[in-house]
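Team,

Forwarding the record for the chain on the shared tracking sheet. I've put the sequence and predicted structure together so nobody has to dig through attachments.
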Amino acid sequence: MPIPERIPADRLLDAIHGAGVEFVVAVPDTHQRTLLEAIEADAGIQVVRAATEDEGVAICAGLIVAGRRPLLQIQHAGLYACVNNLRGIGLDGAFPIVMLVGLLGRDPARAPRENFGSMVRLAEPLLDALTIPYHLLETTVDLPQLAQAYGEAEVCGGPVAVLLGEESGPPQGVPA
């Protein structure tokens, strides 16, 4: 297992642009705070703030119907909170929703399934139970997985999760 690193927000933002994302539907996430700040400062991506993760799933579905490419940005607790909408809209409705899920509180020295906190430890098994494919973003080397998640979501006709292993870091060249 690679040692997780704080991926700089600007590198994450480049990967989001590279995936063709036009809208980020965000439920505020401390784990991805620096990334959300970078996205909000970027004129090329529109941010839609959602009050709940259920709302975020529905907004993403609406954007997909309108021919747009959204990214749902949530925290792991939000993944648990929107299970019914992910099932009903994402899986049963076959919407290719890509989620960037922050693993807040993760011990980076351990694989997510080996973490002490149940929210982190059970995230991958929950996705497995829902048959939602997922990728773990641990280092900048993993950034192409974001674009791959979109291809996978379109092929499988349903949601795909990208789990952000460490909190997003400040943009390159900016002290932490």
